[in-house]
Amino acid sequence: MTVTRMYPRLVVSDARAAMAFYEKAFGAGVGEVFTDNSGKVVHAEVSFGSAGVIGVKDQGDGDEPVSVIMALEVADPDGVAAAMEAGGATVIYPIDDHEYGRGGRLRDPWGIQWMLMRP
């Protein structure tokens, strides 16, 4: 067997709002979006430039939100954290200098944790 692609899928309570948040906070781009007959997002792809793609979907149909930490290397962790907070994220660990770089962790409005780091 050969794996041809792998990416995380985030299960959230409101996929459209989460995608809008990721666009504003991270400059992400929303690609394909598929919905069911009720309008719930069953699959969407969000691109983080050359860093990769994640899947996002609404909870339900046996998929419930789970705890996950997404690690992002960014040029300006302070700026990204500020954009996240402006969009409703909460600080878990403030952006600060560490021996391994500058970074911190925030939780978005859907409970996903984002570790921001500039090595």
Topology:
Layout: E1 9-12, H1 15-26, E2 29-35, E3 41-47, E4 53-58, E5 69-73, H2 77-86, E6 90-98, E7 101-107, E8 113-118
Parallel strand pairs: 1-4, 5-8
Antiparallel strand pairs: 2-3, 3-4, 6-7, 7-8
Helix pairs in contact: 1-2
CATH topology-level fold name: 2,3-Dihydroxybiphenyl 1,2-Dioxygenase, domain 1
Number of strands: 8
Radius of gyration: 15 Å
* Total of DSSP H or I helical runs spanning 4+ residues: 2
Question: What does this entry show, briefly?
Answer:
With 119 residues, this protein is α/β, with parallel strands linked by helices. The chain has helices spanning 15-26, 77-86; strands at residues 9-12, 29-35, 41-47, 53-58, 69-73, 90-98, 101-107, 113-118.
